[in-house]
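$ run holo --ligand "S-adenosylmethionine" --emit tokens
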Amino acid sequence: MTDPQTAIDAEADARAATERDPRVADRTAGEVQEGIPFIGAGPGDPGLLTVTGRELVEAADLVVHAGSLVNSDLLTEYCADAEQVSSIGKDLEALVPLMRDAYEEGREVVRLHSGDPAIYGAAVEQMDALEHEGVPTYVVPGVTSAFAASATLRTQLTLNGVANHVAFTRPQGKTLDPEEDHIGEFVGMGDVTTCLYLGTHAVAETMDRLIDAGHDPDIPVTVVYHASWPDEDVIEGTIATIGDRLDEAGYRASAMVVIGDAARKAGYERSYLYDGFANGDEPADSQQEADD
Ligand SMILES: C[S@@+](CC[C@H](N)C(=O)[O-])C[C@H]1O[C@@H](n2cnc3c(N)ncnc32)[C@H](O)[C@@H]1O
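-- output --
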């Protein structure tokens, strides 16, 4: 097998040197394609896996999944008879030949990521390494945990008059340098709902940094632990209080931290879509533009 980093570099060079991958134009998202699907398992509840994802998982002989981030109920319900392998603790050098060999033996292989593979999924490097080995891959999207948290909170992440933008981000730490941490900038913009992935263990220090940088300590922060799981929990606070509240609750992982008023549905305004536009006032350029 080619060393994974060499394979990743070679795939990047090939992309730079050639026209766009013809599959981008020839295939649509959601279409079952040749190769190993990288499937978004959704946030946890088996019902939040897409129909296509479920059909592929049910037909699989080998399911490589993201360990405890994928609800074991989903594996029990949809692929109890398949070989199931957790990717936790396995590097590319182990994962790539495992999937390649099974695929080349004619077995149905699926790679199950939590939420949607597009968000902090580290899927592309696996896909590149597999493609370099001659194994085609594609993505089947899923419900990212920020969307599940929004549903739990019965709100919207964009909310007219409150939040015009959403940031999916993560705090600084072992894999993100302080200068790459933009949480303070998103919060400072005022009309952004900031969704922190991979930050449950670092909420208190993240909030301290925001306070040190002069942000309003009363800005709401809402934490949704295990959104869509049976033990789902919601902790509410502010930049000043959420660290202590989360410490008391004892959650150190698997939570979505939502900074901003949208989580509370506070102070929003009626949208143009169901007001002026619906009444035939000055037409919006497109329905899409009025969709907030
Ligand atoms: C490695 S990232 C993967 C994110 C995933 N690809 C997604 O789209 O949700 C793991 C982080 O996602 C968040 N997360 C995943 N599942 C969650 C859930 N059910 N409820 C809340 N947060 C979750 C947590 O912040 C966790 O630290």
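-- notes --
The two ends are 49 Å apart (CA to CA).
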